[in-house]
């Protein structure tokens, strides 16, 4: 199974996993693309590596939560917390670490629910920080975005201090502006209350737990066409360049920062080794499919919810100095995701709950 293989490889990363023994970790948005992998990895470490870590999985949707993790209900090391992160955190126990991964980066929701996106990033982050302050959490890991850098078309690469401009009245600014403000909240709680954190500015991650319908991000849209056996329809000329980060590399990167990240510091997290145009990505996806009839079709139309800035590569030297580097090539990552979606793989990857 694709996900189990990913979990095994992640667990073999040279990280001090034993530091999690006896600890409790809260994961917000636990059924999300990255958060579900974080949660499953923690469960895998508990069951297969003898690391007695406990997990609190915060989810809004009970039905989806039970689909992902229902076999662990009643286990002493796993707890559901069914609530909206925009409400005060209702868990009464002590938590050692928080992965605050709740939120939505989908252009579909940027268009249809900008207030909800801002509430999650602002009010949700404040609720997490208030809880972390009360129970003296060791560290909060916050999933931020490369978009906090705004428009910066002069820099050759974007390191963690290279900021451009953002128009707060741009239609899609609900997402990058609220992520920026959330990072400022994190730093404010550190300065005033000593709450330790790291912000991780993630770029273009993808994997088996991605949503293919009504998402709007380019990898999801194009992958959805291939999985459905449709021609791949490009909503632009396809000349824009992106660089994609496979989910297992993203999760190992987050844990690398958890263990080794400097206090109150942000880290870029991206795979800049294989930048590719959207047109070439579409052709790679078509070639990776078993359906030889799939064609790439250009159908340019107005696109709302997408970042229109010229892409500048992220500088990932800071996280690489912590010992991280991407391990999964774009071709292999695409093959793994396509295999997952075109097979009968069980969505519950552990199987021993």
Write up this protein.
- This protein is an alpha/beta fold and 353 residues long.
- The chain has a single domain (2-209, 245-272, 309-328), classed as Rossmann fold (3-Layer(aba) Sandwich).
- It is 38% helix and 16% strand.
- The protein has eleven helices and 15 strands.
- The strands form five sheets. It has a seven-stranded parallel sheet with strand order 3-2-1-4-5-7-12, sandwiched between helices. Strands 6-15 form a two-stranded parallel ribbon.
- The protein is globular.
Which CATH class is shown?
Alpha Beta
Overall shape: it is: globular
Strand order, largest beta sheet? 3-2-1-4-5-7-12
Give the oligomeric state.
Answer: single chain
Distance between the termini: 16 Å
Q: Uncertain segments of ≥5 residues (pLDDT<50)?
A: none
Q: What is the fold-level CATH name, i.e. the topology? A: Rossmann fold
In short:
The protein is 38% helix and 16% strand.
Features:
two-stranded parallel sheet, seven-stranded parallel β-sheet, Rossmann fold, 353 residues, single chain, alpha/beta
């Amino acid at each position: 199974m694709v996900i189990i293989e990913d979990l095994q490889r992640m667990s073999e990363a040279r990280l001090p996993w034993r530091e999690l023994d006896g600890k409790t970790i809260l994961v917000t948005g636990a059924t999300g693309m990255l958060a579900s992998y974080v949660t499953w990895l923690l469960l895998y470490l508990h069951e297969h590596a003898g690391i007695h870590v406990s997990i609190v999985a915060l989810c809004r949707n009970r039905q989806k939560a039970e689909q992902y993790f229902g076999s662990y209900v009643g286990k002493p090391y796993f707890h559901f917390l069914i609530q909206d992160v925009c409400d005060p955190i209702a868990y009464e126990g002590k938590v050692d670490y928080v992965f605050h991964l709740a939120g939505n980066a989908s252009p579909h929701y940027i268009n249809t629910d900008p207030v909800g996106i801002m509430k999650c990033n602002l009010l949700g982050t404040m609720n997490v920080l208030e809880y972390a302050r009360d129970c003296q959490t060791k560290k909060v890991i916050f999933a931020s975005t490369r978009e906090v850098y705004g428009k910066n078309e002069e820099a050759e690469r974007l390191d963690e201090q290279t900021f451009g401009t953002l128009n707060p009245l741009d239609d899609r600014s609900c997402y990058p502006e609220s992520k920026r403000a959330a990072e400022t909240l994190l730093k404010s709680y550190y300065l005033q209350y000593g709450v330790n954190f790291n912000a991780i500015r993630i770029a273009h991650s993808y994997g088996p737990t991605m949503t293919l319908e009504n998402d709007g991000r380019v990898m999801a849209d194009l992958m959805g066409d291939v999985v459905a056996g449709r021609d791949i329809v490009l909503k632009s000329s396809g000349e824009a360049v992106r660089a994609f980060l496979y989910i297992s590399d993203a999760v190992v990167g987050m844990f690398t920062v958890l263990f080794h990240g400097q206090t109150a510091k942000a880290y870029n997290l991206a795979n800049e080794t294989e930048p590719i145009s959207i047109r070439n990505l579409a052709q790679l996806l078509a070639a990776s499919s078993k359906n030889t009839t799939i064609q790439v079709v250009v159908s340019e139309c107005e696109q709302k919810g997408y970042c229109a800035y010229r892409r500048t590569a992220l500088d990932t030297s800071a996280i690489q100095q912590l010992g991280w580097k991407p391990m999964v090539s774009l071709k292999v990552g695409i093959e793994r995701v396509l295999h997952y979606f075109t097979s009968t793989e069980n969505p519950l990857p552990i199987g021993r709950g």
